[in-house]
């Protein structure tokens, strides 16, 4: 109502000015009182004005000037909030001056009084009277009526009233204010689209006419929220885009104030130019002054109010989230964190943690959640944050931190609504860690506590699964069967049925497995795990020696497999069955079909290998070479294709021997004997490929392979040397980086070797050959006398790279590192494993046996140590490096045992064996013999 | 002689037939027709005491402001801007730019309003010729946001390293200026060319999120983000952006659809 009140003051002031300029009612005492009254009114001292105006009435003054006394008295009462008196005074004015110049204004005053007295119907009717009369008060009355109708809940009527006001366009402050109100009314009556349209109209130049931009913001929020609630997200975002940040609102208000000042200055200039308009323009300036004061007040209010940043961004983010647009929501929340205003920081961090998680970025999620928990460790959001953190860490396989977060939540807030989920997830972390017993206990607690919990079914299923993975097939079977009975159509029913069959497979009941798998296939058809089930079915048939029946089942499994592993397993199991039955042609055809169907599958190289092998076996060696070179050509210059080296190796193997076919006698066209190198060059002609360091290196690799197969180690080594000396690590693929690193290690070029290993780890972090790099770095650490680092590299080789190729070296490396760290008890069983593994028999066996001797020597068991050393130089003579050391250590042990004769005998044997003459140990033996002789 | 005559005409601010209101500092207000500016004087026809049009000449320093009636072409340009049609906006605002350039020192002129439409259209439209033309006629608008955006557009052509530094400084999360929008657009293009898909997505979507009212920048930004999503293998997200283009900026749909192919 402040505006209307202001309006009343303006009328009064206008009148006072008018009266000063024209006539004063009554004689001089009355004139004096009147002047006092008007001065008090002008100064805002309405009580004094009332006293003087009432005195005027008692003085019985007359004349046309009394009209102003009555009107001013009403206005003064109004301004002192004496509404009833004001109303009565306005009514008196109308009664006395029905055709007075301020009759419409008085009517407006009465309407305002009705409003303030709660006489809404009367107020509305009186406003309508003012509207009917038209004139300068019409818009004000329309606006007031509209506001009143809105307040009375007559939103449709309010809309009509306000629409009629703005119909002529948004030109006056009243019309703009009415538009603002109308927009709010439209929003209230569910006409969101109309509301938004009006809000849009108020943008741009009209903003200057809006009295209070904060109202505009509130309206934009209101309309946006209405759209958001109705999930009309684009419109919600459009409405929110009209919300202004604090600095913009302040600027807008300052511009408005400047514009009002300019208008007042222009009025002053006009009054000077045309004194006859002074009264009119002064009145206008008074109005403007009030608007200016209001604007100033609003500016102060805006400056003191908090920024809308968080409220706005959070709503916008919410709208984007509802549309599944997580990236946009993330950008919005991130921008809040960068703002100096910390409002909503806690909620922002929590939202970001959740959004990053939903967007599949657990690293960022964990980072912000940790930040949140550090800044707000014990607030309402910390439970949710801990749960989210645990979930994300579990997803990232950071199992210990995940357990810690979930355990903290359970301890910190045992009554939190997050507890059931946390309990379940904690059991999941145990499950992932392989701590199946703890996992089972956790799931059982969950089941006992939350019979209608969200994860009740899954917990039951996971108990069975935990038993299964723990190798406890009997309880697993019982639990899976119980699950299947309880949840016949459950989420995990197909998997449970498959696991039941797998339990029977573990019990070697292959007939039952065949029956159950067939039943499964009938029930679940092409369910995503059907590849696994078919593979199991094939295994059972194979175990029953029903090879021919297993083949189509495996092939079906290979086609259906949902993972590369299953596809690979089934494909090569089918191949095994075909080879067993001697159907290699069919196997080749199967691989051809596979290559055509899955041209980018990781098993393709092996498939190509088998196709070429089958062709070779069928006497089509040249065709096989052609087939291989065609495949090789496709990716010889692509360093990311690991497979090329395997195919090059096979090509070299096919070139090794002359073709057997009668049509191709083992001679070249010139009648010269068959030359494998020429054959390889013919197929692997460098000129036919792009001239790049990688292609050159791969051609050299094929030549090295051929040389190795032809037992020409020097040539093979020379080719490998050429690769690592001429090719920068960044040009090579994983296989050649691995080979080059090892070759340089052999050449004792440790620093260069490290460069190749580092490149392998950096550029091919998912390569199967990564264990070369971990092993290489471990060997380098051993050479540098850093056993602790070496141990870490070897451990990583197993944990991170699987150590599929380098398991022997890595195992021995671990034992050596432990030995050097003095952990002989840990080293011993590993060395025994190396020494006893038949597949690894060779130099590493000699080294392992030697080290076992050293362990016993260290423990003082010299006879025992001698036995190991003797085993080395008796059984592993080929490995001179260790033979020499074994002789020397045997002699030293005998010396320690005070058996000089035996020691001398071993020194002599070492010093006289021509094969060992070049060894440092042989030279040491000679020196010691000379010393003994001189004694 | 004829040739010289035409040149003189070309140098004078054009006259566009519509009525304006001239407010003089002495408080006089004239409904003005055939408004034009010659040197330091404003000339127009206004109704005389008898209602017949008479020529009025006012020194510029006596003019408080001119309330120009909005040109219909500008209203159309605003509509086209809502649809993200930068070519249409450039076409519709060409005459208005020339007109208001002539009155850029007259208070109340709409030079800044025209530039508010033209600058984002130039940023989104790769219209080098129009930018050169603007450079030739440029005069500051007095609006820091617009003047910065103009300098940014020029720098992209004349001083690419400097422009790049400016883009990075302006493209701060949460910034809502036109210059910030242009900066994100440029940084997005750069990231896209360098196959930094995540950076490209972040930059392009910042245009959508932080400067939603700059609708002329949106089609390019959404298409850029869609391209990056496709390259990243997230075609569904790209398709959602293309749907937005379909409903909001149909003129860019063909280009957007091509991204999904």
Outline the structure in words:
The complex is a heterodimer of chains A (935) and B (261). With 935 residues, chain A is an all-alpha fold. Among the domains of chain A are: 2-245, Serine Threonine Protein Phosphatase 5, Tetratricopeptide repeat, CATH 1.25.40.10; 492-582, Tetratricopeptide repeat domain (Serine Threonine Protein Phosphatase 5, Tetratricopeptide repeat, Alpha Horseshoe), CATH 1.25.40.10; 592-662 and 675-727, no CATH class. Chain A starts with a helix and ends with a helix. With 261 residues, chain B is an alpha+beta fold. Chain B folds into two domains: 2-67, SH3 type barrels (Roll); 72-260, Serine Threonine Protein Phosphatase 5, Tetratricopeptide repeat, CATH 1.25.40. Chain B is built from twelve helices and five strands. A five-stranded antiparallel β-sheet of chain B has the order 4-3-2-1-5, with no helix packed on it. In chain B, helix 6 runs parallel beside helix 8 (178-193) and helix 8 packs parallel to helix 10. The longest helix of chain B has 17 residues, at 86-102. Chain B is elongated and about 75 Å long. In chain B, 40% of the residues are buried. Chains A and B meet through helix 13, helix 14, helix 16 and helix 17 of A and helix 9 and helix 11 of B.
Brief account:
The complex is a heterodimer of chains A (935) and B (261). Chain A has 935 residues and is mostly helical.
CATH topology group of the domain at 2-245 in chain A: Serine Threonine Protein Phosphatase 5, Tetratricopeptide repeat
Instruction: Assign a percent range to the helix content of chain B.
Output: 55-70%
Sheet with the most strands, sense and barrel status of chain A: none
- The separation of the N and C termini of chain B measures 60 Å
Number of helices of chain B: 12
Radius of gyration of chain B: 22 Å
Q: Write down the overall geometry of chain A.
A: elongated
Radius of gyration of chain A over all CA atoms, rounded: 47 Å
Count all strands of chain A and give the number: 0
In the CATH hierarchy, the architecture of the largest domain in chain B is Alpha Horseshoe
CATH level-1 class of the largest domain in chain B: Mainly Alpha
Q: Identify the CATH homologous superfamily of the domain at 2-245 in chain A.
A: Tetratricopeptide repeat domain
Distance between the termini of chain A: 124 Å
Helix/strand order of chain B: HEEEEEHHHHHHHHHHH
Spans of chain B of at least 5 consecutive residues whose pLDDT stays below 50 are 1-15
Strand content of chain B: 5-15%
Tell me about the largest β-sheet of chain B: 5 strands, antiparallel
């Amino acid at each position: 109502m402040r505006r209307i009140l202001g309006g009343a003051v303006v009328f009064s002031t206008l009148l006072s000015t008018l009266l000063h300029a024209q006539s004063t009612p009554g004689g001089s005492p009355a004139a004096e009182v009147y002047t006092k009254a008007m001065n008090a009114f002008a100064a805002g001292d309405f009580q004094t004005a009332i006293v003087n105006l009432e005195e005027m009435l008692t003085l019985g003054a007359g004349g046309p000037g009394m009209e102003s006394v009555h009107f001013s008295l009403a206005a003064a009462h109004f301004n002192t909030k004496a509404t009833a008196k004001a109303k009565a005074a306005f009514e008196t004015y109308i009664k006395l001056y029905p055709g007075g110049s301020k009759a419409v204004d008085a009517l407006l005053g009465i309407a305002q009084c009705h409003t303030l007295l709660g006489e809404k119907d009367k107020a509305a009717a009186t406003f309508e009277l003012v509207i009917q009369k038209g004139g300068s008060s019409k818009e004000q009355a329309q606006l007031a009526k509209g506001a009143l109708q809105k307040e009375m809940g007559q939103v449709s009527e309010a809309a009509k009233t306000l629409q009629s006001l703005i119909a002529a366009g948004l030109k006056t402050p009243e019309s703009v204010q009415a538009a603002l109100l109308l927009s709010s009314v439209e929003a209230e009556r569910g006409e969101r689209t109309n509301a938004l349209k009006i809000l849009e109209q108020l943008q741009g130049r009209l903003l200057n006419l809006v009295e209070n931009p904060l109202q505009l913001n509130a309206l934009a929020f209101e309309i946006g929220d209405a759209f958001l609630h109705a999930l009309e997200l684009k419109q919600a975002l459009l409405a929110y885009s009209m919300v202004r940040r604090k600095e913009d609102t302040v600027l807008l208000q300052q511009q408005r104030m400047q514009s009002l000042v300019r208008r007042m200055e222009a009025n002053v200039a006009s009054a000077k130019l045309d004194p006859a308009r002074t009264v009119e323009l002064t009145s206008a300036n008074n109005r403007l002054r009030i608007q200016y004061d209001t604007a100033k007040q609003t500016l102060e209010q805006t400056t003191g109010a908090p920024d809308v940043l968080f409220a706005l961004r959070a709503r916008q983010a919410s709208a984007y989230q509802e549309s599944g647009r997580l990236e946009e929501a993330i950008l919005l929340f991130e921008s809040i964190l960068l703002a100096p205003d910390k409002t909503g920081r806690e909620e922002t961090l929590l939202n970001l943690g959740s959004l990053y998680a939903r967007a599949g970025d657990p690293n960022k999620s964990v980072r912000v959640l940790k930040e949140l928990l550090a800044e707000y460790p014990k607030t309402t959001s910390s439970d949710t944050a801990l749960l989210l953190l645990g979930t994300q860490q579990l997803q990232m396989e950071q199992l210990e931190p995940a357990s810690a977060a979930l355990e903290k939540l359970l301890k910190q807030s045992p009554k939190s609504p997050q507890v059931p989920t946390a309990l379940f997830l904690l059991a999941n972390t145990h499950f992932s860690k392989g701590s199946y017993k703890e996992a089972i206990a956790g799931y059982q607690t969950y089941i006992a506590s939350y019979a209608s919990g969200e994860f009740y079914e899954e917990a039951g299923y996971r108990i069975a699964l935990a038993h299964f993975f723990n190798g406890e097939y009997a309880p697993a079977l019982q639990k899976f069967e119980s699950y299947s009975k309880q949840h016949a159509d459950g989420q995990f029913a197909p998997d449970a049925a498959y696991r039941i069959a797998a339990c029977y497979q573990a019990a070697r009941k292959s007939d039952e497995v065949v029956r159950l798998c067939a039943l499964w296939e009938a029930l679940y058809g092409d369910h995503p795990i059907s590849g696994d089930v078919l593979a199991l079915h094939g295994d059972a048939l194979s175990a029953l020696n029903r090879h021919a029946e297993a083949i189509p089942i495996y092939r079906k499994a290979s086609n259906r497999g949902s993972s590369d592993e299953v596809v690979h397993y089934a494909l090569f199991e089918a191949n095994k069955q075909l080879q067993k039955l001697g159907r290699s042609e069919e196997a080749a055809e199967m691989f051809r079909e596979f290559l055509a169907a899955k041209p980018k599958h990781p098993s393709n190289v092996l498939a190509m290998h088998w196709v070429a092998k089958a062709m070779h076996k069928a006497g089509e060696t040249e065709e096989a070479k052609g087939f291989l070179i065609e495949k090789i050509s496709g990716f010889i210059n692509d360093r990311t294709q690991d497979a090329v080296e395997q195919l090059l190796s096979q090509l070299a193997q096919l070139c090794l021997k002359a073709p057997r076919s009668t049509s191709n006698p083992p001679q070249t066209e010139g009648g010269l004997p068959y030359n494998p190198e020429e054959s390889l060059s013919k197929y692997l002609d460098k000129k036919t490929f792009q001239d790049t360091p990688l292609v050159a290196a791969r051609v050299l690799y094929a030549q090295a392979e051929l040389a190795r197969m032809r037992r020409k180690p020097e040539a093979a080594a020379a080719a490998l040397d050429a690769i690592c000396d001429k090719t920068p690590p960044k040009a090579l693929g994983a296989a050649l980086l691995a080979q080059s690193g090892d070759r340089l290690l052999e050449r004792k070029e440790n620093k260069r070797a490290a460069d190749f290993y580092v490149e392998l780890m950096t550029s091919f972090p998912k390569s199967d050959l990564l264990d070369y790099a971990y092993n290489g770095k471990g060997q380098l650490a051993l050479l540098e006398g850093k056993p602790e680092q070496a141990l870490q590299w070897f451990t990583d080789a197993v944990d991170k790279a699987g150590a599929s190729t380098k398991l022997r070296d890595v195992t021995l490396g671990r034992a050596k590192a432990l030995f050097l760290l003095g952990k002989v008890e840990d080293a011993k069983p590993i060395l025994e494993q190396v020494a006893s593994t038949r597949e690894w028999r060779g130099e590493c066996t000699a080294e392992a046996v030697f080290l076992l001797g050293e362990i016993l020597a260290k423990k003082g068991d010299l006879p025992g140590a001698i036995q190991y050393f003797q085993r080395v130089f008796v059984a592993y003579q080929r490995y001179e490096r260790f033979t020499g050391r074994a002789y020397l250590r045997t002699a030293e042990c005998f010396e320690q045992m005070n058996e000089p004769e035996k020691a001398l005998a071993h020194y002599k044997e070492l010093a006289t064996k021509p094969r060992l003459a070049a060894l440092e140990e042989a030279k040491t033996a000679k020196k010691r013999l000379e010393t003994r002789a001189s004694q | 002689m004829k040739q010289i005559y035409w040149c003189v005409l070309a140098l004078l601010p054009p006259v566009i037939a519509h009525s304006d209101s001239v407010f003089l500092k002495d408080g006089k207000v004239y409904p003005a027709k055939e408004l034009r500016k010659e040197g330091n004087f404003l000339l127009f026809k206004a109704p005389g005491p008898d209602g017949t049009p008479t020529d009025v000449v006012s020194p510029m320093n006596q003019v408080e402001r001119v309330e120009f009636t909005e040109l219909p072409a500008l209203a159309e340009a605003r509509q086209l801007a809502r649809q993200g049609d930068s070519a249409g906006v450039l076409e519709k605002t060409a005459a208005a730019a020339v007109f208001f350039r002539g009155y850029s020192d007259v208070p109340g002129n709409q030079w800044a309003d025209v530039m508010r439409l033209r600058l984002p259209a130039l940023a989104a439209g790769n219209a080098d010729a129009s930018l050169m033309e603007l450079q030739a006629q440029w005069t500051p608008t007095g609006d820091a946001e617009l003047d910065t955006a103009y300098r940014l557009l020029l720098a992209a052509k004349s001083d690419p390293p400097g422009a790049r530094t400016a883009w990075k400084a302006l493209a701060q999360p949460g910034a809502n200026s036109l210059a910030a929008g242009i900066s994100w657009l440029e940084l997005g293009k750069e990231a896209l060319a360098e196959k930094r898909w995540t950076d490209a997505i972040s930059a392009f979507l910042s245009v959508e999120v932080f400067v939603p009212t700059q609708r002329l920048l949106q089609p390019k930004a959404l298409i850029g983000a869609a391209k990056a999503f496709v390259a990243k293998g997230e075609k569904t997200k790209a398709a959602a952006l293309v749907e937005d283009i379909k409903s909001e900026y149909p003129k860019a749909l063909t280009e957007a659809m091509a991204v999904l192919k």
